[in-house]
Automatic annotation (TrEMBL):
Keywords: ATP-binding, DNA-binding, Nucleotide-binding, Transcription, Transcription regulation
Domain annotation Sigma-54 factor interaction: ranges: 151-379
Highest taxon of the lineage: Bacteria
Keyword Nucleotide-binding: yes
Biological processes annotated in GO: regulation of DNA-templated transcription
Single GO term (MF): ATP binding
Protein name per Swiss-Prot or TrEMBL: AAA domain-containing protein
Species, as recorded: Aminipila terrae
Length: 472
């Protein structure tokens, strides 16, 4: 049954136009309650115009973003029940439909329509749902599809972590997952959530690195109107996740002086909204993730010992890809098939030379970096066989690629060729690249990240990791 295009606005609360470079061209809202519930007025909402999409939503996973998938592949994507926060810390739960704007066969932008389903206050149309007529091209892989069988590995260490995660998924105790960026922490979380049918109905994820320090209290625990300047009655994430699961990503970004409040909730199961004199009981399973070793964080005074001990009953450690090289070929083959099917290309194999280079490279970005390298090569290849010439430029420079010698391309077998250890050389090259990008962008991290073709959060992590200072 066809639906009049005009009727779509009966189901939509807000609309956003984004160009191919993720610049927000125009955004507006149709339902006045959508803005008033979150404490911003029309002027504040239209102020989103001319910002960049990931500047507005800094905690969105770039790899999983519907906007990225639409702009890259030109397909309509529908997401239901997404919970996320914007740059001010405001938290939303929405149903979205994002579809491409195509001109002369090329994607030049995208339109995203959102329906607010946040359970705060009364909705203007509480029972409305997006008409299924518009879901002609749903995203094939959703979070609901992810299970422990989705985790690709033959490493005995990783298989042991999967075994433990299957047990922890059904326990009420909090779970801590730690490992370097790109090792698959969020994949483990989604598998745990989907296996727990009791708590699966309420699942909220929040990247702690995206929360301004002044808003941590109100976002996690809620607030009452008048508690501070601009404060509104807000339900915190713990209350929103009551009876379900709350995933706190990059927990090591939480300020140390606020960690005792989180510890108290984990111990007593009670939250006190900012400005309130009463406490509320909550039943929430917390899964926390860190991208650094917790013992090192304690040593550096970035993590309280008592909070770690509360989380330490259920701990999962994900090893970096360089320590489980037996998995590299598995990922190469998986991502090659995956991107072949998505991009409709006909890359059938990797040259033996290229496979050896990929096998020996140390993958500082872990599985995420390997995924992007394979995607990049498949996208630009015009041949059935990928060779070292298809490698991204940054990777060719990092491994000091030669034309014929595998050892000179990878450098792992011949450190004397460089005169310094490979890790030190790579870090020096990476540091120079980042400093140059920051200089060209006048210290703007978002623009520098775009120049380096990486998510802003990844670049910020590398800046801190490499000790780059005074770039603003």
């Amino acid at each position: 049954m066809a639906i009049n295009p005009k009727d779509i606005f009966k189901y939509v609360d807000s609309m956003m136009f984004v160009d191919k470079n993720y610049n927000i061209i125009y955004t507006t809202r149709f339902n006045p309650h959508f803005g008033s519930r979150f404490g911003f007025n029309e002027n504040e909402y239209t102020a989103y115009n001319n910002k960049r999409y990931f500047e507005l939503y800094p905690n969105l996973d770039h790899d999983e973003s519907a906007m990225v998938q639409v702009l890259q592949y030109g397909k309509t994507v529908i997401r239901e029940g997404q919970t996320f926060s914007d740059m001010t810390g405001k938290v939303y739960t929405t149903n979205n439909i994002t579809f491409p704007i195509i001109r002369f066969g090329k994607v030049i932008g995208a339109i995203e329509l959102s329906q607010d389903i946040t359970s705060v206050g009364d909705l203007e149309c509480p029972n409305k749902t997006l008409p299924r007529t518009y879901s002609s091209q749903p995203n094939k892989t959703t979070s609901d599809d992810i299970s422990f069988d989705s985790i690709i590995t033959k490493s005995t260490g990783m298989l042991e972590q999967i075994r433990k995660a299957k047990i922890y998924a059904f326990e009420d105790n909090p779970t801590l997952i730690y490992g370097e960026t790109g090792t698959g922490k969020e994949l483990f979380v989604k598998a745990m959530v989907n296996s727990n049918k009791t708590r699966k109905g309420k699942y909220i994820a929040q990247n702690c690195a995206a929360i301004p320090e002044t808003l941590f209290d109100s976002i996690l625990f809620g607030s009452v109107k008048g508690a501070f300047t601009g404060a509104e009655n807000r339900v915190g994430l713990f209350e929103m996740a009551d009876g379900g699961i709350l995933f706190l990503d990059e927990l090591n970004s939480m300020p140390v002086h606020l960690q005792p409040k989180l510890l108290r909730v984990l111990q007593d199961g009670k939250v006190r909204p900012v400005g309130s004199v009463s406490e509320k009981s909550v039943n929430v399973k917390v899964i926390a993730a860190m991208n650094k070793n917790p013992m090192q964080l304690i040593k550096d005074n970035l993590l309280r010992e008592d909070l770690f001990y509360r989380l330490s009953s259920n701990v999962i450690y994900l090893t970096p890809l360089r320590e489980r090289t037996e998995d590299i070929s598995l990922y190469i083959n998986y991502f090659l098939n995956h991107f072949n099917s998505k991009c409709h290309n006909h890359v059938f194999k990797l040259s033996p030379n290229l496979r050896k280079v990929l096998q020996k490279y140390h993958w500082p970005g872990n599985v995420r970096e390997l995924r992007h390298v394979i995607e990049s090569m498949v996208n630009v290849s015009e041949e059935a066989t990928l060779t070292t010439k298809n490698l991204p430029a940054y990777l060719m420079e990092l491994i000091n690629m030669g034309e014929n010698s595998i050892d000179s391309m990878v450098g792992l077998e011949t450190p004397a060729h460089f005169g310094t250890p490979l890790k030190e050389t790579l870090e020096k090259v990476e540091r120079e690249h980042i400093i140059n990008a920051l200089s060209l962008s006048n210290g703007n991290v978002s623009r520098a990240a775009e120049m380096l073709c990486m998510p802003r959060q990844t670049l910020k992590f590398r800046i801190d990791k490499l000790g780059i200072e005074n770039y603003k």
